[in-house]
Amino acid sequence: MKKLLIMMLTVAGVMGAWAQTVPLVGNVLNRATTSLNGDWHYIVDVQEEGYYDYRMNPTRWGFFNNAKPQRPEDLIEYDFDAAPTMKVPGDWNTQVERLFFYEGTIWFQRYFDYQPQGDRRALLYFGAVNYECHVSVNGKKAGHHVGGFTPFNFDVTDLLHEGRNFVIVKVDNKRSASAVPTQIFDWWNYGGITRDVLLVSVAPTYINNYSLQLDKTIKGKKRFLNFSLQLNRKEAGREVTLNIPELKLKQKFVTDANGSVNAQLSTLRSALPLGSSKNSQLSLWSPENPKLYKVELSMDGETISDEIGFRTIETRGKQILLNGNPVFLKGICLHEEKPNGGGRANSTDDARTLLSWAKELGCNFVRLTHYPHNEYMVREAERMGLMVWSEIPCYWTIDWKNEATYQNAQRQLTDMIARDCNRANIIIWSIANETPHSAERDAFLGKLATYARTQDSTRLISMAMEVTGASNYVNRLQDNMNQYVDVVSFNQYVGWYRDVNDAPKMRWEIPYDKPVIISEFGGGAKYGLHGAKNQRWTEEFQENLYRENLAMLDKIEGLAGTTPWILKDFRSPRRVLIGIQDYYNMKGLVSDKGERKKAWYVLHDWYKRK
Ligand code: GCU
Questions:
Q1: How do strand 319-322 and strand 325-326 relate by DSSP bridges?
Q2: Which of 92, 207, 351, 431 is 20 to 30 A away from residue 75, measured at CA?
């Protein structure tokens, strides 16, 4: 974690061009912020008229100027104030009907008031913008960002003035081969400023990010907390206080030449059974006991608070151990999509709805696919006692030979870990899904997996491999990436994309002494469509598929968990069977309205027995 925090400081220094680019600030939800969410004006700009001139060179007369005619003869061919508005955060596809299929550039603009506060700095923070964006404040460039599912921020203090200011964001969600994700993916390419926009007020020197994790070591009655912290500057001698009132733990630290703190604190472990909440000593986070401690970090009279749980996660042979005890991951996959056709989920309420459905199913684990979901989702899962698999969208056939693509993927991985490094419920970082075997792919993902461990050595690393065929009913998992992961996970679609009704005959060979997760299986059904169990799209077909697959899973040696595909029917441009799919992937166990299909009960019963 120390390397992660320092590395981010160095990157910021280099990019002088965007002098405002600073390290990603951690725990933004508990900082002094002003929300810029709300109604933003938008201009649809199919040919990027607002960015390029007719020779396709970036123009200085672009829309980021928010120009107004000064004299009657002045020619200004855009006017944000006259333009319609839509909600931010939100996607444009479900807010404006004629933008349902739109992929391209849309400009967003809003005004906001700002009052300078002495020498304090102002960071402009975006929870996520899909996919690529250029941000400007008062007509001056603030920064650029690529990647639709991770946060970023710019120091815009020097661009602001007292009173009314404006921010303009050019958003482009066009897909491309060298992007991450690449050109094709089985989810809706929701475009827009899809998560919160915040103005964060910080002192000139502030605590940028920190990590507080329970160490696996147990010495007699003692447990140890590993604490690391990074300021926004390499400044020595700054005093920081860490306070965990409930554990009567209050300690002062002084930053080193890098502006960092790296320390280990000891605390007493619970005398009562692990995880018991009755004892005021350390109570460990688990699905049965999602205990979070109030934690306060103070410097120069300013305090950041957080809610942090303490637990350990590791593997032993084919077992996954949570707090030293074997655990079976009763999971489900889900996309970050509101029910009832609602587009991108981006609030605690959205999270609570989706995660309650997972809990009702009997889950203690969710695979958040195929990209980092919003922070509300992760924190709500933590409060609800749901362990999490979090993933970056190295999905299908990424441009493995392209260094810029690798840097993009690594940046998304860095930011995913930096944002959620203190979430006790995140147990697995996943670096990829269903990627084709090749030397280039192995090199790319091998490097990414190794890098992930430099960012966080406390969690498990995995990826969703795949088994797409059997010979003589024997399914073999063979993947060079097995050496880089802690948990071997793979997707298999026996009964849907292959070998219908052959699950009972299937045998599995997984030649790795590591825990196994079946990270996807399933089949489609239209809620309310009934018929014979061999009739595609009926609830009976899906129900039977689940029965047969779960019986097959029961025979897989070393199975430590599963996350069937998928909790809820979700939008996909690849699902065009009218009358059945209507641009929805129908593999949900509940419909988009939350209606339970027959297969729901099969999985629910299986989890009850687990
Ligand atoms: C794949 C993939 C999913 C996709 C699913 C399906 O395994 O990982 O993103 O939606 O299959 O085909 O339904």
A1: antiparallel
A2: 92
Count of beta carbons in the 10 Å neighbourhood of residue 233: 18
Q: What is the C-alpha to C-alpha distance for residues 373 and 388, in angstroms, rounded to an integer?
A: 11
Ligand 1 centroid–CA 377 distance in Å is 21
Q: Is 186 in the pocket of ligand 1 (CB under 6 A)?
A: yes
Q: Are residues 207 and 297 in contact, defined by beta-carbon separation less than 8 angstroms?
A: yes
Interval 577-586: pLDDT, tens: 999 999 999 9
Nearest atom of ligand 1 to the alpha carbon of 585: 13
User: What is the atom index within ligand 1 of the atom nearest the CA of 497?
Assistant: 12
Ligand 1 atom nearest the C-alpha of 185 is 9
Distance from C-alpha of 133 to C-alpha of 106, rounded to nearest angstrom: 10
> Which residue owns the Cα nearest ligand 1 atom 3?
186
- Ligand 1 centroid–CA 515 distance in Å is 22
Report the C-alpha gap between 267 and 226 in whole angstroms: 11
Q: Is 2 helix (H, G, I), strand (E, B) or coil?
A: helix
Confidence of residue 17 (pLDDT cuts 50, 70, 90): low
**Six-digit token string for 40:** 């933003």
Q: Are strands 570-571 and 260-268 parallel, antiparallel or unpaired?
A: unpaired
Pairing mode of beta strands 507-509, 474-476: parallel
Q: Is the CB of 434 under 6 A from ligand 1?
A: yes
pLDDT band at 280 (very low <50, low <70, confident <90, very high): low
Judged against a pLDDT cut of 80, whether residue 277 lies above it is answered with no
pLDDT of residue 529: 98
For ligand 1, whether the C-beta of 27 sits within 6 Å is: no
CA 393 – ligand 1 centroid, Å: 13
pTM of the shown model: 0.95
Q: How confident is residue 220, by pLDDT bands cut at 50, 70 and 90? A: confident
